[in-house]
Amino acid sequence: MIMKLDFASSVPIYQQIRDQIVQAVADGDYLDGDRLPTIRALAGEAGINTMTVNKAYQLLKQEGYIITDRRNGAIVQCSGGRKKAVEKKVNKELELLAAEAKIAGISQEEFLEFCRKAYSG
To answer: What domain of life is recorded for the organism (predicted)?
Structure first.
């Protein structure tokens, strides 16, 4: 897995890793049950500390995107009880984005079109 990390970004590296893995799952690059690269392999490939990758994997585990096992490593888990947690998160974030859009003068139709485009990829 090739990571595109922006070391000058204000977004922490572990968050960039997390976000790219979530996007890869959404895009179908990783399917339910697929193994992610080992922490050591991903850190070596990206040229970063293993603790940074470990932090990203721990976040993914807490969010329910992966399960970890000492023998099998990190395995993608994209089914199951994730829906309610994601619905709650999306609703909260969309409410804030909708408020910001209203203040900026973006119409409801424009906002919905942005949502459609973002969802479609």
So the answer is: Bacteria
Structural contact between residues 2 and 45, judged by C-beta atoms closer than 8 angstroms: yes
pLDDT digits (tens, 9 = 90+) for 76-93: 987 655 676 678 789 999
Dist. CA 112–CA 102, nearest whole Å: 12
> Same domain, yes or no, for 17 and 67?
yes
Q: What is the pLDDT of residue 66?
A: 93
Looking at the structure, tell me whether residues 34 and 86 fall in a common domain. no
Give the structural domain span for 106: 82-120
Q: What is the Cα–Cα distance from 33 to 96, expressed in whole angstroms?
A: 34
